[in-house]
Please model this.
Amino acid sequence: LLALFSTFLLSPSVRTMSSSPTESTSSKPAFLANVVSPDTSVSVRFNSEEEAPRFAVGYWSIRGLGAPLRMMLSAAKINHDVYLYDIVEDGDNGWNSSYFQTKESLKTESKNALVNLPFVVDRKECRLLCQTNACFAHIGRCIGMFGTNDVEASICEQLLCEIYDLRYPYIIFCYRSDGSVEEAKKAFAQAEPHLQKLNSHLANEANNGGDDDKKVHHLVGGVLNAPDFHLFELLDQFQFIAQTYGISDDFLGQYPRLKEFKTGFEELEENQFYLKSWLHEGLPFNNCMSKAGSALNVGVFQRGQKAEWRGKGEISMNP
Model:
């Protein structure tokens, strides 16, 4: 249920920018292709291979928990598909989504009773995985972003859990509060211990390299790993909320190692394609019922307003 709250109709979109949506060509059916039924299907291609790519990531049509998974695959320049499901108004007060019907078909066809969002389809292994950290771990191990040995893999696992703990007060504020400045401040106070721990972890990473003054842009071993992407996305969301609610124009200033990490990670060449893409710039942080970041430019969605990110049909992105 928390996963729904935490991250909670069709003409193709044509864009001319290289990392923005353009009309997509059809591809042959792949594992689960006949049952995923997204409101928007994005083909992300870095080469011209005609076969359906190994991975697909399913999530709501927002950034949320789906963004770092998509960003990982883009940073590794791996072809993949993105399935986006819309939340839409249902009467005066309710919400509905085609995903609620699709979910039952996915359970049956994938033989996975645990289906939830986000999910990852692994076509090579013909299976569907869900639960956020399991998705991070699986993709990370498959593409070489989950440490170089057992010790580093365990550190990645610890960090993924810690970052999810950091996400919790943010989600409570967005989906279970009145959205007031007072509630926003409470969320930041609850997040502070986790931010301090992660700041200290980065200081330790610099020290492990023998240079306390070194700027660290990766959480583990000086290279890209799964936790980096989740932390970056969450810091980005916290930062915008802090600015929007007048909490701080430089909320990361009190966490210098986290500030260095976010700034440096954002500038890495591997991340430029994704950060300039429609998936990053054209989707809201949160779903429509959220009290913050539920419309573009960190706005708050109002029932009945135009949601230009919904129902884009089949689109494609490539460098």
Remarks:
- The beta strands are 22-23, 40-44, 55-60, 80-85, 88-90, 94-96, 119-122, 127-130, 313-317.
- The first helix runs from residue 2 to 7.
- Residues 1-20, 22-27 have pLDDT under 50 and may be disordered.
- The chain is about 40% helix and 10% strand.
